[in-house]
Structure of NAD(P)-binding domain-containing protein:
Amino acid sequence: AASVFSTTYRLPISTLRLFSPYGYWEDRRRFIPTLILNAIKGKRAELSCPSYVRDFIFIDDVIDALVHFLTEKKHYNEVFNIGSGKQYTLQQVVDEVRDMSSNKLKVTWNDRKSNQLEPSFWKADITKTKKQLNWKPRISLKQGLQKTYQWILRNKNLYETK
């Protein structure tokens, strides 16, 4: 609908497709906060499949991409992928969080937790985004996870269940 409206009325309506954003204020039920909270508490995390591949992008890079989009020339009826352009298995993310945790995160992999409709692999092609928006991600997965870990550690009261 947005694409038809954009074309018909020549309005600068575009789509920014986010690939696995993570960071501050993320819902505790999502993958990365689940890992970090379990690592902080010394609890076991039950996760789906270690070989699933995702393109994780830190929220500061997402915000930077949005600013570039808003300040570059207007784009009509375009789709821009906002991701790191890199692929990481869920196991790699677990290993990174485990390395930064003093409690050494414990994980149980359970394929039954997998959503059969969810793809096992996704990675953003950010070639067009880099070129047309003059943007590229700057924060590595490790840096983003460290920032997220420290933020959740400082704000763990926000994640307490009642």
Remarks:
- Residues 37 and 152 are 8 Å apart (CA to CA).
- The longest helix spans residues 141-154.
